[in-house]
Amino acid sequence: MSSNQWEIGPIFRALMRNKVGAILIAIQIAVTMTIVVNSIFIILERAQRIERDSGIDEINSFYLTTTGFGDGFDPKSTAFNDLELIRNTPGVLDAIQINAIPVSGGGWSMSFQTEPGEEKETQGAAIYMVDEHATEALDLEVIAGENFLPIDVRWRQPGLRDWPDNVLITKVLAESLFPDIPYQNVVGKTIYISQTEPMIVKGIVDKIQAPWVGWDDLEHTVLTPEITGFESNRYYIRAQAGQRDRIMPIIEEALASSNKQRIIRGMRTVQETRERSYRGDTAMIKILSTTMVILTIVTGLGIVGLASFSVNRRKKQIGTRRALGASQGSIVRYFMIENFLISTVGVILGAVLTVALNMLLVEMFSLNALDWYFVPAGMIVLWMVGQIAVFGPAKKAAKIPPALATRTV
Amino acid sequence: MLTMTDVKKVFRTDLVETHALRDFNLQVDEGEFVAVTGPSGSGKTTFLNIAGLLETFEGGTYQLDGQNVSHLNDKQRSQLRNEKIGFIFQSFNLIPDLNLFDNVDVPLRYRGFKSNQRKKRIEESLELVGLANRMKHLPSQLSGGQQQRVAIARALAGNPRFLLADEPTGNLDTKMALSVLELLKEINQQGTTIVMVTHDQHLASQAKRNIYVRDGQVSELTDTPDSSIVAINQTAIG
Amino acid sequence: MFTYYLRLALKSIKRNPILSALMITAIGLGIGASMTTVTVNYLMSANPIPHKSEQLFYVQLDSWSQFEPAREPNEPPDQITWTEATNLMQAKKAYRQSAMASTGGVIEPKGQDEKPFMASIRLAFADFFPMFDAPFLYGSGWPDSSDDNRDYVVVISKATNERVFGGENSVGRTIRIVGENFRVVGVLDDWLLVPRFYDVTTGAFDETEEVFMPFYMKQELELTNGGNTNCWKTPEGEGFTAFLQSECVNYQMWVELRNDNEKAQYMDFLNNYVNEQKTLGRFARPLNNRLSNVMQWMENQQVVADDAQIMMWVSFMFLLVCLLNTIGLLLAKFTGKAAEIGLRRAVGASKTDLFIQHLVETACIGVAGGILGLGLAYLGLEGIKSLYGEFVQNLVGLDLTMMVSAILLALISSILAGMYPTWRACNIAPASQLKSQ
Q1: CB atoms closer than 10 angstroms to residue B53
Q2: Mutation choice for A interface testing from B48, B56, B75, B109 by most A CBs within 10 A
């Protein structure tokens, strides 16, 4: 086949005589591409966010809160009795009292620094108050140094302001605080909380996320060894594989009947909490995906509609072309190339709009900047959408009999 | 050049079968200028369509330039149309969105000529019809006679052996019709075989040979037709 | 004449059923998507207290660390300390004022069959109720004197009243909360605030609290901190009092100022107050006090979620594509009708006649698209409800305003979309289409 048969020049010149229809399609393609590419980019980013590993055994874990009331309520004995009761329940792998739940959205953070005093560089980190069972209950591995010993764990009264002497920190936090040395060497170092209060890093754990999924330093986490005596207590329970749903009501019932001076509330699986925390992202993904698909279909149908009309309007011309020697293939090719030219204008405009919208989103909603390859990928997709959409009408055009040329319409 | 033997063409709808051509026999030799006349519905357009490979037929044989075209597929027929046949239509069938140059270019593109070759041919053929200076004009900017000249240029550009004209002057006034006919005669004199379908007896009489089609069959008229036949034809058309 | 055009339009729509369906669907989808997102944004950004949103001001004082602002760029913290809350309340310089905080506690109903439950509590001053137009079912708010006297009085929500008192008029009765006996002075009626503007630091779309209690009960009963507590400096000393007197912010402050003059005076008062505190060695930052009215505060706190805004803009672009689609299809359709238009022109129809005829046709398509769009918006909102869960319940209702706007938007946009094709169609010369071609 010779390139002459592609007729790009004449097709283009003919298009220029019917600009409006072509421009309408080109703009549709451009806007569609803008939405599709930016949506896909947002969707992928959100999907990545959702897929981040919290570092804990989410599937088998759940938690609940108990709030004591009345004069006879003793937080200290309640906490110790509860923990003993829970840990001895068959089906429980391990359990801890904890002040906040990873990925739940609510928690406690403090600033840490490597030198004492005001105006020093600090790193924010989430604090989980736990005992030596935390590594088992939260499925953590101490990758350097040592885990807490029972003797490290202190009793924390309400209103107490100071902190335990030994802490465990995550590998990521160790590397943020001491960027120049390997994390193993952070063990034994002193870090400062509340600007001046020293603590010693007793060990490094592999990974545990902070409670706030929207936070940049999601893996900045400190574990402090203490059991708290607040009115409200939270217990985090890791069940043996497959036992979670069975033991949840058992534990709730056992706690409720062991001490009437409190209410048990907010019992929830970590899985459900995770779903709640990421619900906005999940929803955004679904909404954008739906929008994108419907939009592409609308644009595709628009191309089909306009191409069909254009075929109908040009029946005579197509018959004439056939009479003059155009094969069916040439007719199909004519419409495909015509659409390709329109799409090309569309996707070039689309590339500009895509980047512009992304810049706007970066500016207004502090989204991330688009990776460059999204743009050519989007162009190719929209080119293909156009080609697929026009193929039907083009086939129909090719079926127009050459004898139509001699018919007086 | 063109030999049709017992060619049959039937149009079928759910209710009726219409025999458009029955045992149609015709031979046209190289260099002839044949006018085909006949009343409306006689089958002369069907004949033209079959002769121009625009339609297929059911029975008989058709040899174009020595080649049997009965069993060619659509693609081969398209190629044959492009190479051997030039078409001239009643309503010119120029492509309204293309200028004269691009209109004449259409069949040459399908032929696959190189661009400089196409340019030369387009210019030559537009020169021949006297419109070389209006190459960038659009068909709508021309008179009917000029448009038909462009159509003739387009038909000739590919250098076909054989020109098929369907009521080439049907949409033109007498003066323009005559000039188009003169052009066709000139082309015929240069060796191109022409078959022209028309209902205009006066026009037909200008051709070297006249064929009269009625009920899908040929009746050859060697002499100039008498006025009674002309009268019949005209009532049939009216 | 109009009915004649209407008949022509319906005929024309029926003549190309697929094409018409495509156009109606396109407009419907565009309108549906837009109305869904606009509704969510509209409700998120709704003025919850329109008649006095200009008179209610949120107070911000820059008590933050001298080394860094509470929020870039140089924003004062979004809450105030206990010290400021109590000092400003003591000064009583505004027409009405209430510092407030959130907390929670266990309610123990009297009946043996009703279990104790956890309730959300708002700590506030007497002015809270008239200031925010809280609707009362029974009784009223507590008197000013109860604030300073630290009376054990509460106002409870309708739901709490149902749960504890079976819905009876409980004014004067006793309710046990956080282990203490309180006297009910008022029961609120249903109180839906979207957004719950008086405290957006926790969740702008949370419900109003179940119990309202005098502010100083915080100190009296050492109630826990609800919401967000932010500190730039560690409390000095141990215990609850040290924490209250620290630089930690956990309190909100609203004042009602009836005119610009009162506002200016109050601003002066705030500045004087801060300057006074500076002499005591507090407020190290330059003067940076703020009074934001309700809508300014909603804007400052970005109550309208980014995602909702992104979706709204995406849906507008979606609508644009749908309209371009419709323009293209109408153009094609009217071009196809060229012969008919030429004929009508030839038999004497004026351009205006044709223009109206075709505009009626596009309007019909627009109205049909609008009705479809309304249905889709309803589905869209149901979808959002199921995707986001219960905390958007109050954000996804279609009201009459939105319904009328949907139809109007569809009508206007389809007529706009129809303008150009109609104009083109009407400019077909009368005779040009009569010749065969």
Answers
A1: 26
A2: B109
Which one of 3.40.190.10, 3.40.50.300, 3.90.226.10, 1.20.950.20 gives the CATH number of domain B30-57+72-237? 3.40.50.300
Is A108 part of the contact surface with chain C (CB cutoff 8 Å)?
Answer: no
Report the relative pairing of strands C80-81 and C180-188 from DSSP bridges: unpaired
CA C30 to chain centre: 23
| C286-306 per-position pLDDT tens digit | 999 999 999 999 888 888 888
Write down which chains contact chain A via at least 3 CB pairs under 8 A: B, C
Closest Cα in chain B to A2: B112
Contacts of C118 in chain A (CB under 8 A): 67, 263, 265
Indicate the domain borders of chain B: 30-57+72-237
Q: Which of C117, C388, C437 sits opposite A279 (nearest CB)?
A: C388
Instruction: Please tell me the pTM assigned to this model.
Output: 0.84
- pLDDT (tens digit, 9 = 90+) per residue, B206-225? 888 999 988 888 877 654 44
- Please tell me the distance from the alpha carbon of residue C228 to that of residue B127, in angstroms, as a whole number: 89
Determine whether B236 is exposed, middle or buried from the number of CB atoms within 10 Å of its CB (0-12, 13-18, 19+): middle
Maximum separation of any 2 CA atoms in chain C, in Å: 100
* Contact predicate B65/B177, CB 8 Å: no
CB contacts, 8 Å: B87 with chain A: 320, 323-324, 405
Indicate if the alpha-carbon torsion angle A97, A100, A102, A108 is positive or negative.
negative
Which other chains touch chain C, taking contact as 3+ CB pairs less than 8 Å apart?
A
CA dihedral (C135, C138, C143, C147) in degrees, to 10, reads -80
| Of the partner residues C234, C305, C318, the one whose CB lies closest to the CB of residue A295 | C318
Q: Which residues of B touch A323 (CB under 8 A)?
A: 52, 54, 81, 87, 93
- Contact assignment for A309 to C327 by CB distance below 8 Å: no
| Span C34-78, pLDDT tens digits | 888 888 888 888 888 888 999 999 999 999 988 888 887 888 999
What does R_g of chain C's alpha carbons equal in angstroms?
A: 30
Burial grade of A214 (CB within 10 A; 0-12, 13-18, 19 or more): exposed
- pLDDT value of residue B229: 42
Complex ipTM more than 0.90, yes or no: no
The CA distance from C38 to C376, in Å, is 13
pLDDT in tens, C376-395: 988 988 888 888 876 666 66
Query: Mean per-residue pLDDT for C126-146?
Result: 95
Quick: pLDDT tens for A7-52.
Answer: 888 888 888 888 888 999 999 999 999 999 999 999 999 999 899 9
